[in-house]
Amino acid sequence: MTIRVLFPVLLLTALTISSANAQHKIAYVDSERIYSSFPEFSTAQQSLDRTAQQWEQEIEQRQDELDEMFQEYQARELLYTSDSRQQKQNEIIAAEEELERLRMQYFGPEGQLFQQQEQILRPIQEKVLIAIEEVAQADDFDYVFDRSGDFVFLYTNQSLDITDLVLEELGIDVSRNTRQ
User: What is the pTM for the complete model shown?
Assistant: First the structure.
């Protein structure tokens, strides 16, 4: 059983068992709506997108250069001596390895994009989590779920949506944001 299937089952079981003992207050938020309404997040995301686009262009340019190098090698392969042929093959392999190294440096799991996301977005995410906590504690909610996550809600009662309260806690005018 996968974690996506197992988690909801365990969660519902825990809620069912614990609901026999007491009533729990449950609410949910739409984090996508919160982040899209949060100007700091939009600005940070745009900056990250620009940086990623520049790196993608650099990688595409290097890929084009590598493709040219390989096409030139193929066109002249019969003209090279065996030593020259081996040297050109080694150059192409080295260029491929360098390209892959650069790709991982920028976009790998521990790459520069990941590090910048952590550095730039983490403080914003922490503000949102603090606001959710404050609203949940102020209204005595036992559980707050994220409607935008992998946990799928088959039905949601709109009265349990505290997204607007979280946006207000963050100082964002909810009257100009329409409900989605």
Answer: 0.64
Give the Cα separation of 50 and 132 in Å (integer). 30
Q: What Rg, from alpha-carbon coordinates, does the chain have?
A: 26
Work out the end-to-end distance of the chain between its first and last CA atoms, rounded to an integer number of angstroms.
33
Asked if residue 12 has pLDDT above 90, the reply is no
Q: b/e map of 45-68 (b: 16 or more CB within 10 Å)?
A: beeeeeebeebeeebeebeeeeee
Q: How far apart are CA 113 and CA 52, in angstroms?
A: 7
CA distance 78 to 88: 12
3-state secondary structure of 154: coil
Q: What amino acid occupies position 117? A: Q
**Identity of the residue numbered 6:** L
Taking the C-alpha atoms of residue 103 and residue 96, their distance in angstroms, rounded to an integer, is: 11
Measured distance CA(108)–CA(2) in Å, rounded: 25
Q: In terms of DSSP H, where are the helices of 22-81?
A: 31-37, 39-76
Q: Where are the beta strands (DSSP E) in 59-147?
A: 143-146
Instruction: Give the Cα separation of 172 and 177 in Å (integer).
Output: 9
pLDDT tens, position by position, 55-79: 999 999 999 999 999 999 999 988 9
